[in-house]
Specification:
The protein is built from 12 helices and 16 strands. It is of the alpha/beta class and 398 residues long. The strands form 3 sheets. Strands 9, 10, 11, 12, 13, 14, 15 and 16 form an 8-stranded mixed beta sheet that branches. Strands 2-3-1-4-5-7 form a 6-stranded mixed beta sheet. It has a two-stranded parallel sheet with strand order 6-8. Belongs to the leucine-binding protein family.
Length: 398
């Protein structure tokens, strides 16, 4: 995309105050002139290693893309980015956070591991540096004044699907089977679904720890679900397990798509996880707060630029980090030319209003989480490519 096309696209953006376009992501660290507001340092806490490294890459791309579109500035101030590898464990993530504090960042964006947030919650409050979590956050974690969420709470995919199925299946009377892997996130999803759907939600099945992604290993669970004769299934399984589970259901006489509809949290089919699913997952429905198919001006611009720069569709994780930058942009704009501190930025975040976003406009609720729309998507071919095809709105949560 040449400079003229980029400027034309950026001119379509509303509510983001784009002054111009830099030549690349390197502009994020450009120095300001004496006439400009003083620069700021922002920390990115994202995994470059471990199971979440693909999510970490999307978080970094989304944040830096916003800066690239705003001359490397937030609130008119040049930005220096400090990046630390979150790693795979809570211990490595906490150590990386300490490194960002030592660098005296004004705010921290990222966190791909949901378990890290409750682990560092007290430390964040002690440091008084706002943290904008741009991936799933534990639903049961108490809110904290210095922790903001720009993505979603772990139980919200289940809440969105439960609201939708309750409307479709006789006000919650239709039988729905639930299956999950062990863990806190899975438990929150199952509890969230049953709390909304009601008596038609059958007792959740928890698969054994360490189960392998084979049809044989899922035969027992598929047979048990087939005997329950549900009208729909809500499943929280690893992406690499989904197709084998669907095949096991077919062998048990319950063919997904024709005999029963299969629903799952959107993260199961997001980014690289969609490639893991393969064509065998076609027909799987997922709930997410973003779809690349959304028909709004902000998404048309964002999605076009993302695909042009990175040769793939954007993910909900990239959008959440992009929006974290937008939120900080608004907060620093409110600060004007005054002296900045991390606690002052945190106070200004409370005054940020509606965020004009590719996911649709949203705003923070009293728990510092997004009040936003959720969407139903279906894993299907979009031409030759497996995609999350937008089906409909699900619910507004938050």
């Amino acid at each position: 995309m040449d400079g003229l096309d980029r400027r034309r696209l950026l001119g379509l953006l509303t509510g983001v105050g784009v002054a111009g376009v830099t030549g690349g992501l390197a502009a994020c660290s450009s120095a300001g002139t004496p006439s400009e507001r003083s620069g700021v340092s922002i920390g990115l806490l994202v995994p470059a290693t471990g199971a979440n490294k693909e999510v970490g890459a999307d978080l970094e791309l989304g944040f830096k893309l916003y800066l690239d579109l705003h001359d490397g500035k937030l609130g008119g101030r040049p930005v220096r980015i400090e990046v630390e590898d979150e790693g795979e464990s809570t211990k490595s993530g906490a150590a990386a956070l300490e490194n960002l504090y030592k660098a005296q960042v004004l705010a921290v964006v990222g966190v791909a591991n949901p378990d890290l947030l409750p682990f560092v919650r007290d430390r964040v409050e002690e440091a008084k540096v706002p943290l904008l979590a741009a991936h799933a956050s534990p639903a049961e974690m108490p809110s904290a004044p210095y922790i903001w969420r720009t993505s979603y709470l772990t139980d919200e995919p289940a809440l969105a699907i439960a609201h939708y199925l309750r409307r479709r299946l006789g006000n919650g009377s239709g039988r729905v089977s639930l299956i999950t892997v062990p863990g806190t996130a899975g438990a929150e999803l199952m509890l969230g679904f049953t709390s909304v759907y009601g008596s038609g939600a059958q007792d959740p099945i928890t698969v054994k720890s360490g189960i392998k992604p084979t049809i044989g290993d899922y035969a027992q669970y598929a047979g048990e679900i087939a005997n329950r004769n549900p009208r729909a299934i809500f499943c929280n399984l690893p992406s690499s397990h989904i197709v084998k589970f669907m095949d096991a259901l077919s062998q048990a006489g319950l063919k997904p798509g024709s005999d029963v509809e299969l629903y799952a949290p959107g993260a199961i089919a997001e980014g690289k996880a969609l490639d893991e699913l393969t064509d065998g997952a076609r027909g799987l429905y997922t709930a997410m707060h973003y779809s690349a198919d959304l028909n709004n001006l902000a998404n048309h611009t964002f999605s076009s630029l993302f695909q042009s720069k990175f040769q793939r569709s954007p993910t909900a994780f990239a959008v959440a980090a992009y929006d974290a930058a937008a939120v900080l942009d608004q907060a620093l704009t409110l600060a004007g030319d005054g002296t900045l501190s991390a606690p002052k930025v945190n106070t200004l975040l409370s005054n940020v209003g509606q965020v004009i976003s590719p996911r649709g406009n949203w705003q923070f609720n009293q728990q510092r989480s997004p009040q936003q729309k959720w969407y139903l998507r279906k894993v299907e071919k979009d031409g030759p490519i497996l995609s999350n095809v937008l089906i409909s709105d699900l619910a507004t949560l938050g």
